[in-house]
Amino acid sequence: MNAQFKNIHKVISSYIEISDEEWAHYSSMLQVKEIKKKDIILSEGSVCKEVFFINKGLLRIFFVDNNGEEKTFHFALEKTFATDYKSFLKEIPSNYSIQAMEDTQVLVMSLDMILGGYKMLTNGEKLGRLLAEDYFFMFNDKIQAMYTQTPLERYNDLTSSFPKIFQRVPQHLIASYLNISSVHLSRLINAS
Amino acid sequence: MNAQFKNIHKVISSYIEISDEEWAHYSSMLQVKEIKKKDIILSEGSVCKEVFFINKGLLRIFFVDNNGEEKTFHFALEKTFATDYKSFLKEIPSNYSIQAMEDTQVLVMSLDMILGGYKMLTNGEKLGRLLAEDYFFMFNDKIQAMYTQTPLERYNDLTSSFPKIFQRVPQHLIASYLNISSVHLSRLINAS
DNA sequence: TTTCAACGATAACAAATGTTATCAGTTTCA
DNA sequence: TGAAACTGATAACATTTGTTATCGTTGAAA
């Protein structure tokens, strides 16, 4: 098997059973793409045409609020998917932009590939369901955290679940992810 | 067809094609349940064993934060589903409680019914996928609103998308839904 | 190598939001 | 029907968070 497809095969196999034949056919539709640091692979206002699976690197999903300021919605790590799923599936303009925080290697899945997978793969619909459920759970947790936790608590959770993030992402983007100002995050960190 | 099943049939048919035979079999597993105002049909800490489809009435999904205060996560309206999907599917204790805000009639779907539907119905997995996707989109929008909107803006959105809510829900629960104190909401409304 | 932009800390001040307490009108229910 | 709980407004005050500006350091690019 193409070594570049090892990670995604592992992830998909964790959701459904997929035979070698099916995988060979399915994975042949994957495209490898190298993204340079700071490059934008989805721009707000355009339809999201792809789902990205991150082999190596780090993506940032953000949008621009009413005051023209960027808000970081999500940091997408290795071995996870990144996309604007709503824009992608409904083929409507996206509210989000996606930018590489580092030189990043992604596998690109087109809408045809995803929709085709629902029909072609024995467990295609199930894969779609389980992925949607998992990301639904993730969002559920995120909402609950926004309801119940203080910015400092969310900061501490982030550092404990993803300690290396500070070597990979500037602090003011973490502030925007936590939905607080960079000044305030600096205050929290330096405990004044 | 059982008149009580008309609403849910309409909703499910909007997601997938389902034959009359399949529907007859599937809907025979539905149970009708009447809930009295203030009754709790899911308690935090217990495993959520059901998905509720609301025929008539209004449910409130809430949890208790670290300070022991209730936070209203969601108001579930007629013709929508209410559950703790994560607790339900993973069979783990729930973080949420579900309470009736009015005398409410729900249709009860068990885990066996849902899982059985994935296999039994021609488009069962697809139904599960589309529902998960839709609720995923809903959560996505909710997160974005929490990032970008002021409490007043969220309040105005709520009133325009659901004008009658104030006749059905006390104001302090709306405040907890907006994640602000009841005092603050009162101030916003009375524009001081 | 030099220069400029990016980054993070800090201070001073402003705005948003929470907390506590009180009070009056309603609803509930024993 | 009457007491108690519930509800929402309001005031006073405290806390959190944002805004703007400055400054020194660092990193990137010409």
From TrEMBL, chains A, B:
<dbReference type="InterPro" id="IPR014710">
    <property type="entry name" value="RmlC-like_jellyroll"/>
</dbReference>
<dbReference type="Pfam" id="PF00027">
    <property type="entry name" value="cNMP_binding"/>
</dbReference>
<protein>
    <recommendedName>
        <fullName>Cyclic nucleotide-binding domain-containing protein</fullName>
    </recommendedName>
</protein>
<dbReference type="InterPro" id="IPR000595">
    <property type="entry name" value="cNMP-bd_dom"/>
</dbReference>
<dbReference type="InterPro" id="IPR018490">
    <property type="entry name" value="cNMP-bd_dom_sf"/>
</dbReference>
<feature type="domain" description="Cyclic nucleotide-binding">
    <location>
        <begin position="33"/>
        <end position="113"/>
    </location>
</feature>
